[in-house]
Specification:
This protein has 785 residues and is of the alpha/beta class. The chain is 41% helix and 22% strand. The strands form 4 sheets. It has a 16-stranded mixed sheet that branches. A 5-stranded antiparallel sheet has the order 16-17-22-19-20, with no helix packed on it. Helix 6 links the parallel strand 3 and strand 4.
Length: 785
């Protein structure tokens, strides 16, 4: 028997009288519970544990002890091949020896052929040491890279990972031995092509992929919770280790990571058929890869979180490594520290079941007269506008941030130093489209059950789509769809006047709140304000699932007024963060400025990428210079390059000399020697496609193909080979050229030895180097061979 829905009653009955108000406490209680869960889940995902003191028990990880070691190795930049990096290497060897281990240094070279950038080859010095197990039952490899970028001390990237491994080594050497061997690996030259990891893998030092597991530590930020963001094959076997450490983890992260232009050493090891877990802190990205990745920006709480997670995972694995062969893949996520996982093969069946459950719930609600199919379809279609509107607001907010502070473009992902207010404002803005959707369809177009069913159908359909296209994200829609279907069934069966209908509707939104809301907040730190549209879309999707629990249709004018106030306040929060981070604030602006010497002409310039570096950089590089890439091929960017004249001063340079030449048919083989002045960190040989083409190049026994590997350039320098950490005695290489015409080559030396003394005056305290084209020196010389 169908019961009349209160939506068909006169307005006075629909909004309820005095007795109805007294019986709304279940709905209010459920609504408050959902709100508390939303806030609590965000706080849990954002706040790292307090660091343990230096006098913590020896068997526990202490961020305070680890940080004391960080003070030794992150005093200044130490890129691969620099004297400072050699000092860090020596410190690692000394500390491992103090712990009773027997460290070894792998001095070798490695290379990788590229198709979208210059080939990479370099000299590396990896450090490793093994703590033997009692049964030698497999091996756990703990990996972190000890080189930094050229302009920053690398305190978090990857100094935090390095000292975490040293503190874990101290803990494990103070305990009884585990069953499995534990190898500590400190790789070199991760920042340039992961060459240290490639050399380690090429030498066969990784071991057996069927028995050995890799735990890699890296950073893409300076604060926040530790994220386990990537696994290798056979991930189901690693879930016990993940549960032991309870870091934040979601299989969505691997989908997001594929879209980001980032690689780690784990990328190399995974490519060598090894499995494992990849850990990182990702929030607070403003100092990342900049001069400000120093000790003052290290979050000890984040360091504690990283150490606790990795130590627990290591102990679990080393106590009894799982059988990897035959283990399947898992999809996984965490809820308040609880790791939920299930087989990857269940993703699509579960999504299909969720869709069927949603369809069955809609059918039952229609039979009981709670909804109309046509109106439900309209609500579902309109519900799609809400996340789309949230994404649009996120994009517009980024434009506002750039307008308020153009220098924000210089930050990774557009995140300045202060982002909490911006993220809170954006989260509030995501609610505005949902509130407008609720009031429009709730009062004019549909019944509460139709709104709920519309959001439910959207979620269920997206679950199936995600299961096919991005399986790691499917759980975000699958479980909310199951809960929504259950809630719709229960509310459809409850009497119309029952005060529990709204309460059940609120509670049906709990999975949505627990899964989507903290992840939306986490994504703000992952993709940055420049891509705020992504978490805004997710939060909008959560809103259309939860908001229909508001069973009484809200009045239009109060909702519109509240939405306007929220929008203005939220916009103010977003813009205030951007304004607060202008040059002159406590945290300096990050600027792009390099010194470039043309040794052929004996001329030098200051160059700056784009126009977002502020007044100080603009004074040195005031004019657009479309021809700068022809003279200095490394200076290119989507926003163009500006330049200005600079005095000629001594900087690290390189010179090329022909040692010999042979011919065979139309091929010429030229032996070359490159000598260096000073200690450049990189040398790059460019070949112009207007001269004799390069067929292949050989250095250190590694052969690289010729042709084109710099297709993006607008110049003729369409082939390149970069040599990282070249030895002081120089480098020999061989080029094979086709045809009798001379080859047009350009040799560029790159170093972080920026000539501050050549500036017109001292660099202001309000600016620091930031980004990939800052604080560097380039010196070029051309050759015809």
């Amino acid at each position: 028997m169908k019961e009349p829905d209160p939506q068909s009653a006169p307005p006075r009955e629909r909004t309820g009288g005095g007795p109805a108000v007294r019986h709304r406490w279940p709905a209010w209680a459920a609504g408050v519970l959902v709100l508390l869960l939303a806030v609590g889940s965000v706080l849990h995902s954002a706040i790292a544990p307090e660091p343990r003191p230096a006098d913590a028990p020896a068997t526990e990880f202490s961020a305070t002890r680890a940080r004391a070691e960080l003070d030794r190795i992150a005093q200044r930049p130490h890129p691969a091949g620099s004297p400072a990096n050699e000092q860090v290497r020596d410190r690692l060897v000394a500390r491992l020896t103090e712990l009773g281990l027997r460290p070894a240094v792998q001095r070798t070279s490695a290379g990788v052929a590229e198709t979208e950038s210059a080939h990479a080859y370099g000299w590396v010095q990896n450090v490793s040491a093994t703590l033997p197990g009692t049964a030698h039952a497999g091996r756990v490899l703990l990996v972190a890279h000890y080189d930094s970028v050229e302009i920053g001390p690398g305190a978090t990237d990857d100094g935090a990972g390095v000292v975490t491994l040293l503190e874990i080594a101290r803990v494990l050497t103070s305990m009884p031995a585990q069953r499995a061997d534990i190898t500590f690996v400190f790789t070199d030259s991760e920042e340039f092509g992961q060459l240290g990891a490639r050399a380690f893998a090429a030498a066969g030092l990784l071991g057996d992929p069927a028995r050995d597991v890799v735990l890699n530590l890296d950073a893409r930020g300076t604060t926040g919770r530790t994220i386990m963001f990537e696994t290798g094959a056979h991930s189901a076997a690693l879930m016990p280790a993940l549960r032991a450490g309870t870091p934040l983890a979601t299989s969505l992260s691997r989908e997001v990571y594929r879209l980001l232009p980032n690689d780690t050493d784990f990328t190399v090891f995974r490519g060598a058929s090894h499995t494992g877990l990849n850990f990182a802190m990702i929030d607070g990205s403003a100092p990342y890869h900049s001069e400000l990745d120093d000790l003052s920006h290290v979050d000890s709480a984040s360091l504690e979180d990283l150490g606790d997670a990795v130590l627990a995972a290591t102990r679990t694995l080393a106590a009894g490594l799982p059988g990897l062969t035959g283990a399947g893949e898992s999809e996984y996520f965490t809820v308040f520290g609880l790791v939920v996982d299930y087989p990857a093969g269940a993703v699509l069946p579960l999504a299909v079941l969720a869709l069927l459950a949603a369809a069955a719930a809609v059918w039952l609600a229609r039979r009981r007269g709670r909804l109309r199919l046509a109106a439900t379809a309209r609500c579902a279609a309109a519900a799609l506008v809400v996340p789309a509107g949230g994404a649009a607001i996120g994009w517009l907010a980024w434009q506002a941030v750039v307008l308020a502070g153009p220098g924000n473009r210089r930050f990774l992902g557009g995140d300045p130093y202060a982002v909490v207010l911006s993220r809170a404002g954006l989260a509030l803005l995501a609610l505005v489209p949902a509130a407008l959707w609720l009031v429009w369809f709730g009062r004019r177009r549909g019944r509460p059950a139709e709104l709920a069913a519309g959001g439910l159908l959207v979620m269920a359909v997206l679950a199936v789509v995600a299961a096919v296209l991005v399986p790691g994200a499917a759980y975000l829609c699958t479980w909310p769809a199951f809960a929504g279907a259950a809630g719709l069934v229960v509310t459809a069966r409850l009497p119309v006047g029952s005060p529990w209908r709204a309460a059940v509707a609120w509670l049906a939104g709990v999975p949505t709140v627990l899964l989507l809301v903290p992840l939306g907040w986490l994504l703000f730190g992952t993709v940055g304000l420049a891509l705020a549209a992504v978490p805004m879309l997710l939060l909008g999707l959560a809103a259309v699932t939860v908001f229909p629990a508001w069973r009484t249709p809200p009045r239009t004018r109060p909702v519109l007024a509240a939405a306007a106030v929220v929008a203005l306040a939220a916009t103010g929060l977003v813009v205030s963060d951007a304004v607060a981070d202008r040059p002159g604030a406590p945290d300096p602006a990050q600027v792009s400025l390099v010194y470039a010497l043309d040794a052929d002409r004996h001329e030098a310039i200051w160059a700056s990428e784009g126009d977002g570096s502020g007044e100080w950089a603009g004074q040195h590089a005031p004019a657009d210079d479309p021809g700068v890439e022809q003279r200095f091929p490394a200076l290119y960017g989507s926003e163009g390059t500006r330049s200005g004249p600079a005095p000629v001063v001594p900087v690290p340079e390189a010179a090329m000399k022909v040692l010999g030449e042979t011919a065979a048919g139309d091929l010429r083989t030229v032996r070359l020697r490159i000598s260096v002045t000073g200690r450049p960190t990189q040398l790059t040989i460019y070949a112009d496609d207007g001269g004799a083409p390069v067929v292949r190049a050989e250095v250190g026994g590694t052969t690289f193909p010729g042709g084109t590997n710099r297709p993006f350039t607008a110049t003729g320098w369409r082939w390149g080979l970069t040599l990282s950490a070249p030895p002081p005695e120089g480098v020999e290489l061989t080029l094979t050229l086709r045809g009798p015409a001379p080859a047009q080559l350009l040799l560029a030396a790159r170093s972080p030895d920026f000539p501050l003394s050549a500036l017109d005056g001292p660099r202001p305290d309000s600016v620091r180097w930031g980004g990939y084209s800052s604080g560097l020196t380039f010196a070029t010389r051309s050759y015809r061979i």
